[in-house]
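RECORD TYPE: inverse folding
INPUT: structure tokens
STRUCTURE:
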């Protein structure tokens, strides 16, 4: 007995199987008859399943005239083909006037329906054309006429196929083309002495129209899908940018918060030794405070481990502040950007700044100068740091003029939106405000106001709204780049 081949051997049931395993039929081993039956069934289903929804042709176009074009063409063809077809059927084929008008209307009027539902319109027109071919079959002068398809019928049919190709699937187009050729062949067999080759002509022309129209439709579908994916990718990129900036700011602020927690721990531990005569309850309370501070500091370090990635090892360095701004300006000047720094005298009178404000001010100046180098090389830039009149806030102002005529081309012409998103997040962190915008002469202005006192944090709704606004801003900045916003990195 011959052994069954591995491909045909059913898989053995496992230990938990309760019955014999059934072999799944493979399309690779499908017989020719079964494959033909399957494809024929698919083509038949395609002929009775129109595309959904029934939107008009070119309905998604942004141009108004293009959306109205299918209606205009279908209306003009209907007004021309109905009387012309009726007259030709009456005068050239000897069809009764009333019956000729009915046939002409059935052959041409469905062109209006083809704008929204081309497949049902095709069924009506194809049946009307076939009935018309049979109606004129016994006409004595038929050998001198076009048969089985009349010239007006061919024109209307080709326009209908174009509308069909711009809407329906590939299976539907193949089925329509095969039926058109098959019926043409059937008409040519009994009436070969009458046929003038219009059936072959229509078969060839219909194939060309369906092929071109189907290719245009698939190309349009691919472009729409690409546009949708680009829109989704841009939105995801903007949100990812926002989250990355927030994570980076959180990592930078770790040192600031860790310092305060360490100070609390040291003060709580040393309080019983520094303050004499404390009752036992107070000593236990200080011990609890110190333990809680240590636990919080450990949790913060674990959180930092989650936020820190492999490429952020350099962020372990001490965080800079306003005392490092002159070094930034000097580096910018060496890069070829004429930059001036102005620090008001009353800034020194503010005393030690909160570490979050000090770090945010430095990073804002750093991002602003980096954007000038990337997007407006050679543009004169002024950096000003001012204190508010009531000594409760700090203002960072960066203004760059238009690049000179001899300036180098921009290093970047498009941006990712990281710069302004990071600035907004830093300003939002300390409860300040950020104003940015182009100047009338072509330059750009950035003003950040950072309060030195504690401010109320925004509500959850306001926080979500600001996050969405920042994401939208990052998306817009990444899409337009420096042509619209010189500070969009």
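DESIGNED SEQUENCE:
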């Amino acid at each position: 007995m011959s052994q069954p081949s591995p491909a045909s051997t059913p898989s053995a049931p496992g230990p938990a199987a309760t019955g014999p395993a059934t072999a799944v039929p493979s399309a690779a081993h499908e017989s020719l008859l079964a494959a033909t039956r399957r494809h024929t069934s698919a083509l038949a289903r395609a002929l009775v399943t129109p595309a959904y929804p029934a939107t008009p042709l070119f309905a998604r176009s942004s141009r108004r005239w293009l959306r109205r074009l299918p209606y205009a063409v279908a209306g003009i063809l209907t007004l021309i083909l109905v009387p012309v077809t009726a007259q030709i059927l009456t005068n050239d084929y000897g069809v009764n006037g009333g019956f000729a008008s009915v046939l002409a209307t059935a052959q041409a009027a469905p062109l209006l329906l083809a704008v929204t539902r081309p497949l049902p319109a095709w069924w009506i027109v194809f049946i009307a054309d076939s009935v018309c071919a049979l109606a004129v079959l016994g006409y004595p002068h038929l050998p001198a006429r076009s048969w089985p398809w009349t010239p007006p019928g061919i024109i209307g049919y080709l326009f209908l196929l174009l509308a069909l190709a711009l809407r329906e699937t590939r299976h539907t187009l193949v089925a329509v083309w095969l039926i058109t050729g098959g019926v043409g062949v059937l008409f040519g067999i009994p009436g070969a002495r009458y046929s003038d080759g219009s059936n072959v002509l229509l078969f060839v022309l219909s194939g060309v129209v369906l092929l071109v129209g189907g290719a245009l439709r698939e190309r349009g579908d691919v472009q729409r899908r690409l546009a949708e994916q680009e829109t989704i990718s841009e939105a995801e990129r903007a949100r990812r940018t926002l989250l990355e900036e927030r994570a980076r700011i959180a990592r930078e602020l770790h040192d600031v918060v860790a310092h305060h927690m360490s100070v609390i721990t040291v003060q709580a531990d040393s309080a019983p030794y520094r303050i004499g005569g404390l009752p036992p309850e107070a000593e236990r309370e200080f011990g609890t405070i110190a333990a809680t501070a240590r636990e919080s500091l450990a949790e913060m370090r674990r959180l930092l481990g989650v936020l820190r990635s492999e490429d952020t090892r350099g962020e372990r360095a001490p965080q800079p502040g306003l005392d490092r701004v002159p070094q930034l300006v000097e580096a910018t000047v060496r890069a070829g950007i004429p930059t001036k720094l102005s620090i008001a005298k009353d800034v020194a009178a503010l005393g030690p700044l909160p570490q979050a404000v000090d770090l945010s001010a430095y990073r804002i100046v750093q991002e602003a100068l980096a954007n000038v180098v990337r997007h407006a090389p050679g543009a004169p830039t002024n950096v000003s740091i001012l204190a508010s009149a009531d000594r409760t806030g700090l203002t960072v102002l960066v203004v760059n003029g238009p690049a000179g005529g001899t300036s180098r081309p921009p290093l970047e012409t498009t941006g990712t939106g990281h710069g302004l998103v990071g600035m907004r997040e830093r300003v939002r962190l300390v409860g300040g405000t950020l104003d940015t915008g182009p100047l009338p002469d072509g330059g750009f202005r950035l003003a950040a106001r950072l309060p030195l006192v504690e401010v109320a944090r925004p509500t959850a709704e306001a926080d979500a709204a600001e996050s969405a606004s920042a994401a939208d801003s990052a998306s817009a900045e990444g899409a337009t780049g420096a042509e619209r916003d010189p500070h969009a990195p």
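NOTES: The beta strands are 339-343, 381-387, 393-400, 433-438, 444-451.
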